[in-house]
Fold these 2 entries.
Entry 1:
Amino acid sequence: MIQDIAPSVFHNEYEPVNPASGDTVFVFKQKLVLAAKDPDGTIVFPKAGEFEKELQYLFRIDDQPYFLCLPEPGEELLPGAGLLPDGGRYEYIPLMEVRRSTDPAGPDLASMFACMTAFHLFTWYDRNRLCGRCGQPLHHSDKERMLRCPDCGNMVFPTIAPAVIVGVIDGERLLMTKYAGRAYKGWALIAGFCEIGETVEDTVRREVLEEAGVHVKNLRYVASQPWGSDLNLLVGMFCEADGDVSIHMDQEELSRAVWVDRADVPEMKDNHSLTGHMIELFRTGRER
Ligand SMILES: [Zn+2]
């Protein structure tokens, strides 16, 4: 999965350093990231030496620090506009394109994971410029990844939204779905955010009932995954259908929800996501 970057190690301790000219910098605009595609197809992110603007330290992978270039409110960072590197080389490309790159010349897994996690932090910094309690500008703590209000003392930590990915099993069949109205058209599993006051197990039972009209039992944990592009910590669970297995699909959320025989489950080429990982576990009989 995307976080499995061994032998490299992700260091999320907040120990800021000054950027060296060759350090990678992420610049985001909506769900796009500034990058160049070299003639051989390689995706290259800009380097600190190409920026005139102050950069925010993010984290390290091994000894390599990563930085964020955060626009001021209302400021649009455009390539070639002075603050950013050469407009002829860089362009904003979809985050999904970086993440889905299975091209051997594409970004390595550590860079993909860094990009996703940087987007998560970008969203946090971008949404927390002012104190939500008293409206004063927030200041970054020197000691940890935390924003503090100098006026009222409000402390703001990165927001992580837990969500579930659910593989519902009925004997030799897996409940597979396709989303309605999303860019991603491939197969998925039942998924949803944990809501206030719920356990992960409550979320699993509620989401499967809401999206497919099926009751479930025998829930078991599979794995978890940080999924920065949606600010999530995903929790993967397998469970079994309980009672009536006829599907009553939520047509607002899904365009398809069907039982798929194990032999007919498509091979998932995307091995970066927990969803792909779980579908592969089922397809190859390793879900138990
Ligand atoms: Zn305040």
Entry 2:
Amino acid sequence: MLNEALRNQAAHYVAGTLSADERESFEVLLEAREDLREHVRSLQEVVATMTLADRPTATPPPGLKNRLMDTLQQRPRNPSPECLVVTDATGRVEWVNAAFIAMCGHDLGEIKGRKPGQVLQGPETDAAAVARIRAALAAREPCHETLVNYHKDGSPYRVDVRINPILDEDGAPLQFVARERKLPDPA
Ligand SMILES: Cc1cc2nc3c(=O)[nH]c(=O)nc-3n(C[C@H](O)[C@H](O)[C@H](O)COP(=O)(O)O)c2cc1C
């Protein structure tokens, strides 16, 4: 079920009134949630219809309507090459994309309902960076850290993690989303 706060964010997304950060986070949620994609698609259709109907006397440029409709059909687009994670408000995994599964070796069933850190951190993980993430999540603020994580096969890798909260109108977290990138091994 889409709650009121997410429906509002969807309207701002379609209207283009989200900040760049909010937009990025919202797009991670869009990848994760079919119900949200459906909702955005229907809003976009309304906007497209209104835009085309706006000037009844003007002839839209040839092909405009087709291009618009193509754009609407294109979601879901190509799978993101970035690693994406969506958690609930307590930081427990709800969804990860295929790139994330490829990076860490765990499939969704193995990490769903758990904190990513519990599964992925180990002896070489920087405790200070983990503490900064903990503090940022508690303060409902974005954070950006580089961490050592461990693949399912036990091998370590470095990962760049950017986490953003999705907040409701009262500032309470609805979800957290992360965009992550595996970094090259140090030479
Ligand atoms: C959306 C999201 C994605 C996260 N991804 C990772 C990750 O890939 N690797 C990692 O070590 N920690 C990740 N974390 C952080 C940990 O799950 C955890 O929040 C952090 O270790 C601090 O909390 P703790 O005190 O429970 O360990 C992520 C957190 C969130 C909310």
